[in-house]
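Known limitations

Files may contain more than one protein. Parsers should not assume a single record per file. Below, a two-record file is shown to illustrate correct handling: read the sequence, read the token line, then continue until end of file.
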Amino acid sequence: MNNQLILVVEDHWQIRDLMEQYLSREGFRTSNASDGTQGLANFQVLKPDLVVLDIGLPRQDGFSVLNGIRRQSDTPVIVVTARDDPVDELQCFRLGADDYIIKPFRHPGVVVERVKATLRRCRIRGASRLIRFENLVVDLDAYTACVHHPTGVIKLSLTMSEHRLLARMAEFPGRAIQRAELIDAYFTENTPLETTVNTHVHNLRRKLNDAGACVDLVPVRGIGYRLDKKHG
């Protein structure tokens, strides 16, 4: 199942809802905006894996939003627009769009498949390594972790060992990770003990809970821990 976050910036609510519905069916997580200014703001806060972008938007048009995205990121952008004009299409590609789809499209599933294809190409060419699980985002390259909320982002203050532990468990959510594996591969102490792992897990659970994360580090008796969705 896909777990990537797709930001849909579209002012026509029926098209916006339809695209989100079809993306969700394929396992994608979605967020949306109905104007260009909010779309760019959402992009900066949420850091989505891909943006589906209309051109004819209120407040800021799609050209301006695309330019704003490219000034700070190489996140893939698919333009979905009613403007069947080669000049507009050329302008979008010059600004850095990854694909251009003309509305009305015959079936929303076509957009979903273009999203999948674009994401595959980006993985091949080496997109930034972000791990997402629920509202937790772990950046493997920047060694950071954040908890995303509709009102903003809370950055977790982690030690290197805590980040390595969290990243490993976030790569395999729901899978029990043995303590011995964590000790051998993910801790920097010279002589780490099982109690050290327990201490790191305790601190991580507190930090995740304080930040309002929808995940928890669950002990698995006789094995170790797993990262799972928080219940209740």
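...continuing to the second record:
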Amino acid sequence: MGRVLLAVIILLLIMAETGECVWLNLPRSGSKCVSEEIHNNVVVVGDYVVISDDHLHPTPTISSKVTSPYGNILHHMDNVTHAQFAFTSTESGQYLTCFWADRPAEGAALSVNIDWKTGIAAKDWESVARKDKIEGVELELRKLEGAVEAIHDNLLYLKRRESEMRGVSETTNSRVAWYSIYSLGICILASCAQLWYLTRFFQKKKLI
């Protein structure tokens, strides 16, 4: 029973925690971007560092920008080799993070390592443990509680998105059906008009 409970806890934490490291090779000109779909009211924390593939010293600097689905700038830094960003999402959709070299003419090959965390994975559990004076099993239970809440929020978000997609699908099907009816009606009217015109034409020519 204990092993089953432990497995469930681990599974819930894996499902709820979203944290990933992304490695980007920046082009010598232009920008390189990475995006992630995030729903509303989610904590996002990012940490990135520049690495010179040519081992240049000092390391060339880059610029970065994080934008929301509606184009709001949430983070913008110039001339950095290491920086962090943190925000709580206020819009649902694709959040875009872009990087580009400040001096592309130098031709240095650069890479950016991004540690991107969202939701419960972005929470500072060490601060929570110190503040509430908890540790061990109690701390893990607190993490589990946060994981359950995160999963519940994700399920509600997916349910809402599914409802929206179903509504769009039903609206599209309805419009296609009405378009088909209109097209059929126009074809019938055109055929009747053509038949009437041919009948009048043959009558004038006294062919019928």
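Parsers that stop after the first record will miss the second one. For reference, the second record is described as follows. The chain has three helices and eight strands.
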